[in-house]
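The instructor's notes for this session suggest beginning with a concrete chain rather than abstract definitions. Hand out the sequence below and ask the class to guess, before any prediction is shown, which regions might be ordered.
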Amino acid sequence: MREKSDTPRKGRRKTRDAALERRIALLESRNGLTHAMAAQVASGHVDLDTVLQRMALQAKVDSLMRRHDLARALATQVAMGQADLDRVLFKRRMQEHFSEMGSRSILLQSLAEKTPLYMCLHGQRHLEGPIAAVDQYEFTFGDEAIHKLQLKWACALSDKKKARRALGWNKERKAAPREPVWKPQERFCCSNKRLFTLMDRERTIQLQLLEGEQFTGQVKWVGRFEFAMTVKGGIELVIFRHALESLKEMG
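After discussion, reveal the predicted structure:
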């Protein structure tokens, strides 16, 4: 009697197992589920919509990682809407730029390459030639030690004529020379982020220096104490950030 009662149970179990396997196979073929995920859905441990949402999220994460070289955690935040992709990529570009350009200096470049410069200093003074030495606060030109705060802008000596043609003036400022602003807190504030944003978006800017010089062009690179811009004539000139009086975006 016992053997007769067990046989139907085994048959029913085999029938249920076969139906489950067919359900699993159907989920795998129709929805692209792995066998493990299909088994969870078929057994009722999780609903199909939840699994499909997880798959879509994972596909988006993998795509972000491949396309933008993001870490998985950050790609997941972007995919889930917890982080903005444009901001993430902008921040990375800015970090990479300052890592490469933060310490760049036209003075050090002239010193290393022995290339002559055209430099404009406070008091409408101009220097032409190579740099002899550079330290933390001063540079040496010929036999003269000059404080870096005296510098306003500079370019390669070969670009002197084009730089002067690109130069505009605020006549009131030109008639009233000014000393450098010695206290950092009293200088015109133009943050790294603002300058980099203008460069990154290729915006045209107009700036004015403390003694009235005006230039219009686009930011090319940004360093801690200097930044370069391309101006009329396609040349590059370097602005010393401590000499800025104003800066605005054009158009």
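Then share the key points. The chain has a mean pLDDT of 90. The CA atoms of residues 62 and 75 lie 8 Å apart.
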